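Notes to self after the call with IL:
- keep both proteins in one doc
- input above output, always
- annotate only the second one for now

Protein 1:
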Amino acid sequence: MTATIRPDTHIDPAATPTEDDGPADAELTDAAQRDLEARLRARYPDVDPALVHAAVHDSYRAFDGARVRTFVPLLAENVARRTLRAHQATV
């Protein structure tokens, strides 16, 4: 079975999701950040907790404008881990 889109179909750009998906999204993001921060503090016990917090916070802020939010937690975790690994390599 093949789906077809009729030529007269209009997609309203105003009806598409934006980066602000409402309070539920913000609460999930906050919970994901707290969880990531806890896991990274356990993984990098010798790194100052303030630096871990900043790495997590900054990595999530890097994706603030992302229209597709599905993979933001994974991408933010990768950025934060790279930041902390780089810090460990310089210490």
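Protein 2 (the one to annotate):
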Amino acid sequence: MYGVDPSAFSSGDYRDGEDDASQLVPVRFFLERGVPAAPGVFAVHDERQALQFVSYSDDLSRALSEIQSRIDPESCAWCRVMIFRNKAMRTPDAMQVGRAWRRA
């Protein structure tokens, strides 16, 4: 499903507070961690932490890196990431979190 093998992302790669969407983290920090290809929902925030963009990707690191390279750093300074650690999380209900972020 979505072209990513969920076993490639081990529980050791997952960090509570950073990968469960409970807090904003600097985009640079997330990318420097070298998270392997992992699917999930992400939100991009500007340097003032105002929401700019919400989306789904089958490779969060690649998506954030591409967005960061296309827009100015001030508009892509922070991110909120929810990594889908298993296939059960990849449901339409689980992806509703992105819609909730837009309304908040």
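Annotation: The chain has one domain: 6-97. Residues 6-97 form one domain.
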